[in-house]
Amino acid sequence: MLYTYPQLYPGTLVARYKRFFADIQLDTGELITAHCPNTGPMTGVCQIGAPVQVSFHDNPKRKLAYTWETIFVPKGDANTVGGVWVGINTALPNKLIKIALEQRLLPELGEYQTIRSEVVYGQDRRSRIDFVLGDGARSIYLEVKNTTWSIDDVAIFPDTETTRGQKHLRELIDVMPEHRAVMLYLINRGDQTKFAPGDTTDPVYGQLLRTAVAKGLEVLPCRFNVTPEGIEYLGLAELVL
């Protein structure tokens, strides 16, 4: 297990609103309002009535004691039993990848001695790359994107237009060829075997990604299996461009 959750409490999603709030009926019968740590539209995974898991934080400085961590998304038609747990806490992906980097779980990256987080870069020096690996003449600039939307067996990013994501691709293009540039898509569910850009939601992003790959950008679509107990790394998905 790459990451073990703290104790989680099961419940059912009643409503999600104002991006940051989710009303959840705990299995104990208590109705709570939990922090929703995902500001995006959560396309395809924010399903009212679905089972969820929340964590509890006994911190008097917090406005909301509970945090929504996962949701169970059914698969197939109404006569099919089954589904998959999906991680929706966007604060976790960078923590997961840092652990994976420290444990050298991604052989595609090769050898590196140092791991730096949130490094200032870009032409205006106002952006931060998630990770820089190595501090030599040719470092690895690595950006992480959380991915939960899927169609059939294909994980897709983004699920809405993202000018910020477009900016990150342009900045990764700028660091090449002096440095290696890597875009890592963290597929936060274990049922997807392929990855593709979301051309229907953000065609500009899709075209920029293909341009960046043509210029040398490396893409790592990393699959993770999510359970109420924790998260494990499954390997790479097939890249479909």
> Got a strand count?
17
Any low-confidence stretches, pLDDT <50, length ≥5? none
- Nearest-angstrom radius of gyration? 18 Å
Q: Distance between termini?
A: 31 Å
Number of helices: 3
Order of the strands making up the biggest sheet: 1-16-15-13-10-9-8
Strand content: 35-45%
Mean pLDDT score? 94
Estimate the global geometry from the Cα principal axes: globular
The H-and-E topology, N to C, reads as EEEEEEEHEEEEEHEEHEEE
What does the model show?
The chain has 241 residues and is mostly beta strands. The chain is 15% helix and 42% strand. It is built from three helices and 17 strands. It has helices at 93-102, 163-175, 203-214, and strands at 3-4, 8-17, 21-26, 31-35, 51-56, 66-74, 83-87, 115-121, 127-133, 140-147, 149-151, 154-157, 180-187, 194-197, 218-226, 230-236, 238-239. A seven-stranded mixed sheet has the order 1-16-15-13-10-9-8. A hairpin with a 3-residue loop joins β2 (8-17) and β3. α2 (163-175) packs parallel to α3 (203-214). It is globular and about 60 Å long. The two termini are 31 Å apart. The model has no long low-confidence stretch (mean pLDDT 94).
Brief summary:
The chain is 15% helix and 42% strand.
Summary keywords:
241 residues; mainly beta; 7-stranded mixed β-sheet; 3 helices; 17 strands; globular
What's the helix and strand layout?
Blueprint lengths: L2 E2 L3 E10 L3 E6 L4 E5 L15 E6 L9 E9 L8 E5 L5 H10 L12 E7 L5 E7 L6 E8 L1 E3 L2 E4 L5 H13 L4 E8 L6 E4 L5 H12 L3 E9 L3 E7 L1 E2 L2
Parallel strand pairs: 10-13, 12-14, 13-15, 14-17
Antiparallel strand pairs: 1-16, 2-3, 2-5, 3-4, 5-6, 6-7, 8-9, 9-10, 11-12, 15-16
